[in-house]
Every structure is written in structure tokens, then in C-alpha cells.
Amino acid sequence: MTDTLPPVLDVAGLTVSFPGAGGEQRVVDGISFVHPGGRLALVGESGSGKSMTARALLGLVAAPGVVAATRLQMDGSDLSGLNESGWQRLRGQRIGLMLQDPRHALDPVRRIGSQVEEGLRIHRRLGRAERRDRALSMLEAVGMPDPLRAYRAYPHQLSGGMGQRAMLAATLIAEPRLLIADEPTSALDRELREQVLELIGAQVDLRGMALLLISHDLPQVAQHCEHVLVMHRGRLVESLPASRLADADHPYTRMLWQCRPSAATKGRPLPTLNMLEAQT
Amino acid sequence: MTTEIVNLPVPRLVWRKRLRRSPAATLGAAALILLLLLAAFAPWLAPYDPNLQHIEIRLAPPSHAHWLGTDGFGRDLAARVIYGTRPTLLLVSLVLLFTVPFGLTVGMVAGLGGGWAERILMRLTDMVLALPSLVLALAMVAVLGPGLFNGALALALTAWPAYARLARAETQLLRRSDYLAAARMHGIYGVRLVFGHVLPMCLPTAVVRAALDMGGMILAIAGLGFLGMGVPPPTAEWGAMVAEGGKVIFDQWWVAAAPGGAIVLACLAFNLLGDGLRDWLDPRHD
Amino acid sequence: MSAVHLQDVRVWHRSDGRERTVVREAALTVKAGETFGLVGPSGCGKSSLLRVLAGLHREWSGEICLLGQTLLPGRRFEAGLRGKVQMVFQDPYASLHPRHRIGRALREPLLLAGEKRPDARVAELLAAVDLPAAVADRYPHQLSGGQRQRVAIAAALSLRPSLLLLDEPTSALDMSVQAGILNLLNRLKTEYDMTLLLVSHDADVIAHMCNRAVTLRDGHLEGVIGTGGDG
Questions:
Q1: Which CATH superfamily is domain C33-58+77-226 in?
Q2: Strand locations in chain A, DSSP E?
Q3: Quick check: is B6 in a domain?
Q4: For residue A110, how many C-alpha atoms fall within 13 Å in the half-sphere facing its CB?
């Protein structure tokens, strides 16, 4: 091929709308962005439409929601015309999804090992022993202290951080091109959040995958991503390199950037959305 | 964030809208209202005196004069079916009045109290639950003598444990909830906590259960009547009427079919209503 | 006078007839009017310790003194102390009764306390947490997470507490919503002249809010940290 590869994701005019009491409600309102590869963050608060955007990219918007886009491409191939089986092949094989809470995302009555292997069972033709080997090495790669024990464990026997590692293993094993992580750390303690984000970043780089990290914590994702998109009420309000966040233009981005409490902010009120609305 | 809320209309669902959402429940509610109206206005609605005997037209088939025919004493079946709603509904209400409050209280106290109170109350509940209800009811009526009140008492005696278990299961889940902890921190204890805070959480399931139970209750009442243990004759009662009709069922089927159909419809009404209530009573179900 | 004084406190849970100690040999003193932090990873026992101080968990031993009153293990708070110690829970959805309108939830403790004009006080409380009065007609599920937490704070304030216990009050919320709640707590602390005891797993939140803090690890309290600008 040529040296100008198509971007991992090329989205234009993406809209997700739901029929509501007062007419059609646009949860995602015509957003456009390009994911060139590497690590991209999509930041916004609850109700901003960030999770719905991820669902739209995975073909997971359930009726009565309607997805429309002028362009929706992955690696140069069009996604908008996919049927259900096409989406199913896409999910897991080319796009992996990691969710917020391992207690909800993992099946409580199946062992971790079989859930990690599932991606291989569906998308690859491998023998039992080889599947098991791959699952074990994957569990080791995501930092499980005792992969064999984790392989045999049920989800409730793992702590939150370990559960999230198991989820990551289950997502990575099919070697997707793009990993979408939707608030992968908000159910975890502060200290663990850093570790898990660190791990996700390292694994993504190691495997040459692209990452779309969805979060509400702008300062935190800024440390783990190269480029940041900020969403507010269904629209993209900002798109800039993470290194330039400190001097962002949009007041909403600035608010998100500054509202994290720390020792430095002690004794001063933190910026909030209400202050923002009072100013404008 | 704080400004948004004022503009949002408070979503209070209109009854009409709720009804449209669940046609089965609407049907059940309509049938129940019809039964209540029939019971209340029986003297005006019934075409004849239900106890007036016309031996010359006994076992007459349905006709213009007698829509559902007549029974073995020449009494008008339509009138008797209409009057038959009265003892049935009265008995059902009496049983509910005995069982639901009692069962809920036992269950909530056990679930909230824990420890010994819970063990004793729930073992008692299990014991009563093991008793065969209709057999026990028959025995009680045999001892106390047939009648409306005794019948209700007999059925109520074995019907309350279901509500106690339901309430205890719900309350146990609530016991550790933050909002009961918050209520305790506000100084809300005892009766106020049980009836103001726990009851609203247990009531919906109990009401649904009650509505679904009522169908069975009507069958049990009819069963008592069928065995001659219900309301004494000549009062019109569906179970007793079916028993009478049973003697001639191969030649004059309508004598048994009229009250039998009434029983089926009444049971169906309560079951449909129970299903619908389950949806309505959940405030999160908009 | 110290707001909270603990000496050699042990807290345990009982399950299946076995005791499991979650906090041992805890000793600390919180001065009246300060914001004191309790940091630690989840499962370290910090919530259990807070529930003891809230009077919700009665299986403990040792010496606890709250606002000058000595507590007795296994016993309910005395009526005078009850209103003075209030708590805000982690999950605002779980701490409000799902079938009570906000107005009712706020009015009930006021009525029990013998308040003459409860409706005026409810409006006042809602205003204190920056919510419009119309919220009183809502059910909890009709509010956002941040709004629910504001209601929970209003409910805790209704009895004019002197000590407010905060159990991870913002960890279920978005960043900017968290900022709003933290600002609100700091403002109310001055307005209502309260002592705050804040439990969190987020060291940054503690650093922003607290005069002093301790770390709880595996049931043990580890060293008091002054977090800059000790007041």
C-alpha cells in the first residue's frame, strides 16, 4: 500500500437521536472527528453523549435510537451500511470494548479463563491447549500476579482492579485494531486508576493498536493520551493535543481542566459548570 | 445543572395514558368494576328475585325471559349469578382485610428486627405455611359452623404467611440500605420507620400478590360453597350453584355453566389486574 | 473541646457467628471546626469506622467521645446527640427513599424535631444547597446524581448538625459536579459552623478539603498528616 494509510476512524456528522416527548432528542449532535491512530481521549460528563458515541461506533445503539452519519469509516472501509452480523464481526475482532465495572461486564457464573478465551473461540480457529496458553500469557501480560489462579477464578473472587485487568485481557486477546475503553477506571480507587490506565496505554502501544479512551476526568486522561476531544451536550466543543490543554480556548474545557481538586486548590472554590453559565 | 430542572415538566402520568399502555390490566380493572357495580346494585339489576321459585319452569334453557335459564327450583339463574357476586366479593375483601395487614406486619417486624424475633416469627410462618389450607378451612367451618365470617376466618388463617415471607424478603434487602440508615440518623425509629419507610417498599409486591391471590381465593370460596360449607342456602353463591348444577350437568349444562363462567371471569379479572398493578405501582416505571 | 475523640477503638463485623475485626487500636482527635480526612483504599475499614461514629454500627469497643458526650458500645445515640451528628453517603441514589418525594424526605425529620414552619424550612434548606424549590415535588429518580447528592446534604443539614460525616460524598459523581459539591460543603461548613469528617479514597480530594488527615490501612490508623495551611 501507499504511505498515506487511511485513519483508524473517520467520522463526520455523526448523530444519535431518540424520539422523546418534545420531539426528537439528539444525544449526539453531528460530531466529526478523525482518529489517526495512537491514543485519543473523548472527554465529557454524564449526558454529554460520549458513551452514546462509542455505542454508535460499535453498532450498539438500541431501538428506538437512530444513528445517522455522513461518513463513518474504519481503516477506510465504510461502517454505515453494515448489517447485524457485519457489526458482530467488527466487534471483538476489529474493535474491542472495555467497560466501566467488571462486576457487571463479566459473567458471574463463568470462570475468568473461559471468558478471556471467548474472543479466540469466536474469531480464531485454535485448539483447546493453544487457546489456554494464549489466555494465560494474556493474563500475565495484563499484570495478573498469578495467571493460573486468575484463569480458574470466578469474577467475584477478583478485586475491582484485578477484574478490570481480566476484562482488558478478554478484550485484547482477539487483537483488535481499536480499543474503546468507556470509563475503564471510574469504579476503582484513585491509586488503581493510574495503574490501570498505565497498563492500558502500555498494552495498546505494544500491540500497535489504536485507543479511544472515554472518561469524565480530563486531567487524568491528558496524561495517558496524545489528543483530546471534549464533548458537551452532544457536541464536540474542543479538539486539541493533550499537551496544549492548559491553554485551551473553550470555557468548558478550561473548567474541566481546572475543576480537579488538589493541595494547590485548597481554600479556593473550584470552577464549576454553574459559574461557567453565570459568566456567559 | 440547577437551572435545567425548573423547565422540565414533572412527568405525572395521566390515568388514561397508563390504561392505554396495558390493555390487559384495563380489561381486568373494567371487569372488577363491573363486578363491584353488580354487587352494589344487584336488586335493581337482577331481572327477578333470586330466591323466587317457579317449579313449573324449572331447568328452563336460556331464553328471552330467563337469559341464563333457570335452576332446579325454577329460580332465575341470571339473577342468582348477579346476587352471587355479593358473598364472593365480601368474603374476598374480608380475607384480604385479615391477611395482608397481618402478614405484612409480621414480615416487616421480622425482617427489620432480625435475631430472635425474626427466627420465632418466621418459624411460626413456616408452620402455618405447611398446613393444607382448604382442608383446614373445611375443618374450621365444620367446627364453627358455616357462614360468611367463619369462612373468611378459615381462609385467612392459612393465607397470611405468603405476605409475611414476601415482606420479610423485601425488608431484609432494605435493612442495610443507606436510606433507612439516613432515616435512623434523622431520629426515625420504630412504628414510624416500619410504616412510613419500609411499608411503601413492601406494599407494591404485596398488592400484586394479593390481586393474583384473589383469583385463587375466589376458587377456594367457591370450593367451600361447592362442598356445602359456605354461605347457607338459599342465599345465591356461585360454588353452591355449581354444585347444584353438577347434578344435571349432562342434560341441563347451563345450570352449572352460568355460575362456573362467573367464577372463571372473576378469577381472570383479578389476575389481569394483578399483572397491570405490578407495572403501575412502580414509580420508576414511566 | 474536641469534636471527635477515639481511644483504642476496635470495630468488628459479625457474620455466621464469627467476628471479623475491621479496625483495631484506632486513636484520633478531631478538633471542633476543622475538616478532618480519612484516606485509604476500598475495604480498609474506613466506612465501618465512620458508621460507628454515625451510630449506625454498634459492634465496637474502646472509648469514643463525640461533641463532649461519651458513647456506649452497643447502644443507640441519646436523643440530644442524634441530630447533632449527621452523615452524607457515597451513593446519592441509595441514600434517598425511592418512594418519598424530596419535600417529604426533608420535612419528616423537621416535624419530628418539633419544627413549627416545616415548609419554610424545606425551602430554606433547598436554597442552601442551590436547588430550586420545585425540587420538593420530585422523586429522587427524577433528579441527576449531583442534584440527589445536594438533596442528601440538605437532609443531613435539616437538624442543624455540629458534626457532618461524609462517606465518599463525590466518588460517584462527575468531576465538575464533584467540584460543585466540594464548594458547597466548604461554604456550608462555615454557614452552619460544622466540623467535617471526610472519608475518601482520593488523596487529592482530601488535600483540597482537609486541615489534617490520617491514612487507614488494613484496619490500622497511620500517622496524622497536616495537609498544608493548618488552620
A1: P-loop containing nucleotide triphosphate hydrolases (3.40.50.300)
A2: 9-20, 23-35, 39-43, 66-68, 71-74, 77-78, 95-98, 178-182, 210-215, 227-232, 235-241
A3: no
A4: 13
pLDDT-derived band at C30 (thresholds 50, 70, 90) equals: very high
A246 touches A222 (CB < 8 A): no
Q: Which residues in chain C have Cβ-Cβ distances shorter than 8 Å to A272?
A: 176-177, 179-180, 183
Contacts of C229 in chain A (CB under 8 A): 266-267
Q: What's the domain range around B104?
A: 29-43+68-280
In terms of C-beta density within 10 A (0-12 exposed, 13-18 middle, 19 or more buried), how is residue C88 classed? buried
Cβ of A277 under 8 Å from any chain B Cβ? yes
Site from B4, B186, B207, B280 to mutate, C interface, most C CB atoms within 10 angstroms:
B186
B216 part of a folded domain = yes
Contact residues, chain A, for C204 at CB < 8 Å:
190, 260-263
B201 touches chain C (CB under 8 A): yes
- Give the gap in angstroms from C-alpha B283 to the nearest C-alpha of chain C: 7
CB atoms within 10 A of CB C20: 11
Q: Does some domain include residue B242?
A: yes
* Chains in contact with A, counting 3 or more C-beta pairs less than 8 Å apart as contact: B, C
Q: Is B197 on the interface with C (CB under 8 A)?
A: yes
Residue A280's pLDDT is what? 44
Put simply, whether C85 touches B (Cβ < 8 Å) is yes
| pLDDT at position B21 | 66
User: Closest-CA residue in chain B for A46?
Assistant: B1
Mutate to test the interface with C, among A259, A262, A274 (most CBs of C within 10 A): A259
Question: Which residues of chain B are under the pLDDT cut of 50?
Answer: 1-11, 286
Interface contact flag, B186 C134, Cβ < 8 Å: no
Among A266, A272, A273, the residue with its CB nearest the CB of C208 is A266
B-facing residues of A in 256-275 (CB < 8 A) are 273-274
- As a whole number of angstroms, the distance between CA B230 and CA B147 comes to 6
Cα separations (Å) of B3 from B7, B8, C119, C132?
8, 10, 22, 8
Instruction: Please name the residue of chain B whose CA is at the shortest distance from the CA of residue A274.
Output: B1
**Chains with 3 or more CB pairs under 8 A to chain B:** A, C
Chain segment B41-84, per-residue pLDDT in tens: 878 877 777 777 777 777 777 777 777 777 767 788 788 888 88
Mean pLDDT of chain A, nearest integer = 85
| 3-class state of residue A101 by DSSP | coil
Proportion of chain A above pLDDT 70, given as a percent? 96
Question: Of C38 and B153, which is predicted with more confidence?
Answer: C38
CB contact under 8 A, C183 and A269: yes
The C-alpha angle with vertex C194 and arms to C190 and C198, in degrees rounded to 5, equals: 105
C135 touches chain B (CB under 8 A): yes
Report ipTM (2 d.p.): 0.87
C-alpha dihedral, B224 to B225 to B228 to B230, nearest 10°: 80
Q: Give the total number of structural domains in chain B.
A: 1
Q: Which amino acid is at B38?
A: L
The distance of B176 to chain C (nearest Cα, Å) reads 10
**Residue B114 included in any domain:** yes
Of C180, C201, C208, the CB nearest to A265: C208
Query: Rounded to an integer, what distance in angstroms lies between the CA atom of residue C226 and that of residue C223?
Result: 10
Residues 6+ apart with CB under 8 A from A22: none
Q: State the CATH number of the domain containing residue B166.
A: 1.10.3720.10
Please state whether beta strands C85-88 and C163-167 pair in parallel, antiparallel, or not at all (unpaired). Answer: parallel
pLDDT at B2: 39
Write out pLDDT tens, residues A2-51: 456 788 889 999 999 888 777 788 889 889 999 988 899 999 888 788 88
Q: Characterize the bridge pairing of strands A71-74 and A9-20.
A: antiparallel
- pLDDT beneath 50: ranges in chain A: 1-2, 279-280
